[in-house]
Task: structure prediction
Amino acid sequence: MEPVIILRNVWKYYKSKHGSIAALKGVNLVVHRGEIIGIQGPSGSGKTTLLKIIAGLERPDIGDVVVEGYNLNLLDENALALLRNTIVGFIPQDYGLVEELSVYENIEIPLLLAGMERDERKARILELLQYIGLEKRERVKVKYLSGGEKQRVAIARALANTPSIILADEPTANLDWENAERVLQLFRKVNKDFNTTIVIVSHDPRVLEYVDRRLILYDGVLREA
Amino acid sequence: MSTEVIKLFLKVYTISMGLRYAIILSIVILIHEILFLSTSNIWLYVSIIPCSLATLVYADKKLLRELHEVLIICGSRKLVLLVYKVLYTVFMVLSSCLVPSTYMIVKGYGVPGFLLFTLSVIVVLMIQRFVVVFS
Result:
C-alpha cells in the first residue's frame, strides 16, 4: 500500500513557565492511502499538535513529516498553504467555521482561495451540500445550525478542493451519540467514495469503532492500540 | 482572489463591529448633547476620549479572528493574510477614532479633533503591536 503520511522521529516542544515541555516525543507514523486511522488519547496528550503538524499548521522541532511525498520541513509558508488548500482538509475541534456567514459562504472560502470562478464555485458548493444532505440550508447562517449540521458543513468545506487527506480533531466532541454516529458514517462514506485518507483524533473510545486502525497517543508517545 | 477576501472581510467586519460601534457612539454622543451642550468643552473631551477606547475594547473582534483562522486553515497564501491584517489594522484605527474625531470636527473643534485622531491612531497601533490583535 502507498504511504501518504510519514512521520519520522517527530518531537515538538512548547515553552511554559517551568521550561520546555515536549508535546510529542519521537513520534513515528505511516498512514497508507485510503486508510481511516483513529488516534485516541486523553486531553493534553498531544493529539491536536500531531494533527497540526501533519496539516503544516505547526512545524516539528525535530524530525521529518512527509505528506503526499512532500517533506514539510522543506516547504515555505506559501507552499504549506497550498498543501492545506489542495491536499489536506483540516477540521478543527470547534468546527472552524465563521458563525456569521452562511453555510454556502463558509464552504466557498477554500474555493475562493483556490481562485475558482464564480459559476464553478457555485456548482461545486451545491454538489457538496447535496453530498452532506444540507442542500436546503445553503443560505442559513452557521450560528443557527445544530452541532451535527456544523460538523457536516466543516466536512464539506474540508472536501471542497477534493483533498486526498482529511484530518479531524475531536469530530464528535460536541455532539450527542446519534449525531456523532451520522458524522462518523459520513467520514466512512467520504473514504469509500473518494478513497480519502482520514485521520481522526478523539478521546472518545466509541469513535474508534469506525476506523481501520487504532493508535494511542499518551503523554506525547504514539503506539499501536 | 484578494478582492473576494476583502469582500468577505467587509461583510464580517460590518456584522461584528459596525453595530457595536454605532451603539456606543450614539449613546456617548446623545449623553453629551443632552447633558453637556452648554457647559465647558472639557465635557466633550471627557465623553469622546473614553469613547475611542471603549469602542476599541468593546468591539467584538471574535468574528474577524475567526475568519483569520479559517483563512489559515483553508490554505490562504501569505499575501492574502497580509492584505487581511492591513485591512484589520486600518479598520480598527478608523473605527476607534474616525467617528468621534469627525464628531468633534463637526462640532467646530477641528484642531482638537485632528489631534485626537492622530493620538488615537498612535494608541491603537501601539495596542495592536504590543497586545493581542495578531497573537
